[in-house]
Specification:
The protein is mainly β. It folds into two domains: 207 residues, no CATH class; 83 residues, Sandwich (Immunoglobulin-like), CATH 2.60.40.10. The protein is built from one helix and 26 strands. The strands form five sheets. Strands 1, 3, 6, 12, 13 and 16 form a six-stranded antiparallel beta sheet that branches. A six-stranded antiparallel beta sheet has the order 8-7-11-4-14-15, with no helix packed on it. Strand 14 and strand 15 form a beta hairpin.
Length: 370
């Protein structure tokens, strides 16, 4: 049995900053003129098919939001239960109510509260209940919310409550939303919500808020060489980096290291690495690591200084401090005795000048005689 009652109360809901899949368009999350609440009796279920945009994959669904409202607000805070299941529809597959063994998320009871100012958040991240976040790589997401069995002692009461004389509470239908994607199962089959005379969409949403874990990896280092004793500005490329990721080369950490983004880390290579090839390793805060073997090479420094000339004569000037002309021999030892040392004396600018002067004097005398 599906009972519809008009919503007479405008009650906006507080919105969380979350990424959601939804068919409803009630962005104020409140009742509007013409909206309804629908009371479902066992074994009836309300279902939605959510069609994520291609760029949203992969999804990690961790919460389903369900809006149980009260037309007049008289039944707010009433507590009841529901069961819920999720599975993935393959491309072209029609909406159906599958056997319970087909649920991607197993059938599980949830306690819910009738409220005119908030949605119920049903967590899929509850290992004690056998529930875990659902990763969806492709396909549509089908969600069924079902009334509990009144004969089940663990789920007492009907869902939620139907009392047309005073108030009616139930699952909210956003009448302004397109009718496609909302379904009802009445035990005899699956019907579009519009076939039962209700236009709009169930306010049932799936929340995808977890980041998909990217395995730590290192694929390159640039530049891949450095000279012995020198540090190079390097960029390590990989995946899964964060602010806590540490990079090492040859077991020594990069200095002035900083994570640029999830795929790049920059820093200075260790100057204390010996000549040879070395592994590049990245390590995360959880201890996970990845290694690029023999990725960085330390080379001998290039010999760029010119060789010293040891064969030519030394060009040495000796300061004349006492007015005497003093020359140093090729070992730098003055001939203090004046008798010479018997060794070759390298010419200096002074002796070269004296030689030129004598040659000029001789030329002058020869010219005079002529």
């Amino acid at each position: 049995m599906l009972l519809l009652a008009p919503a007479l109360l405008l009650a906006p809901l507080a919105r969380a900053e979350e990424v959601v899949l939804r068919n409803d368009t009630a962005y104020d999350d409140g009742f509007g003129p013409g909206d309804h609440v629908a009371w479902l009796g066992y074994p009836e279920c309300a279902g939605v098919v959510l069609d994520p945009p291609p760029e949203a994959y992969p999804l990690v669904l961790h919460t389903v939001q369900v809006f149980l409202g009260s037309s007049l607000g008289n039944q707010d805070h009433a507590i009841t239960h529901l069961t819920m299941g999720i599975y993935v529809l393959e491309e072209g597959e029609a909406m159906r109510l599958p056997g319970w063994k087909e649920w991607t998320v197993p059938e599980a009871p949830f306690q819910v509260t009738v409220a005119s100012d908030q949605l119920n958040a049903l967590s899929l991240d509850d290992p004690e209940q056998g529930l875990y976040p659902l990763t969806v790589e492709a396909g549509d997401v089908a969600i069924w919310v079902c009334a509990p069995d009144p004969d089940d002692s663990e789920l007492p009461g009907q869902w939620p409550y139907a009392d047309l004389a005073t108030d009616t509470s139930g699952l909210v239908i956003d009448s302004d939303a397109p009718s496609g994607g909302s379904w009802v199962s009445d035990g005899d089959g699956v019907h579009a919500l519009s076939e039962l005379g209700a236009e709009g969409s169930w306010v049932i949403r799936a929340v995808s808020g977890y980041d998909v874990a990217v395995p730590l990896a290192v694929t390159a280092v640039s530049p891949a060489t450095a000279e012995l004793g020198r540090a190079a500005e390097v960029t390590v490329t990989g995946a899964g980096f964060d602010a806590a990721t540490v990079a090492t080369i040859g077991g020594l950490a990069l200095s002035a290291a900083a994570t640029v983004d999830a795929d790049h880390l920059a820093g200075r290579s260790p100057s204390g690495l010996p000549v040879g090839v070395h592994d590049v390793m990245v390590t995360g805060a959880d201890g996970a690591s990845a290694t690029l073997v023999k990725a960085f090479t330390v080379t001998e420094p290039a010999d760029t200084d010119p060789p010293e000339d040891t064969d030519g004569p030394a060009d040495t000037d000796v300061a004349d401090t006492d007015g005497a002309d003093t020359a140093a021999d090729d070992t730098g030892t003055p001939d203090e005795a004046g008798e010479g040392c018997g060794c070759a004396v390298a010419p200096t600018r002074l002796t070269a000048w004296l030689g030129l002067a004598a040659l000029a004097l001789a030329w002058q005398r020869r010219s005079t005689r002529a």
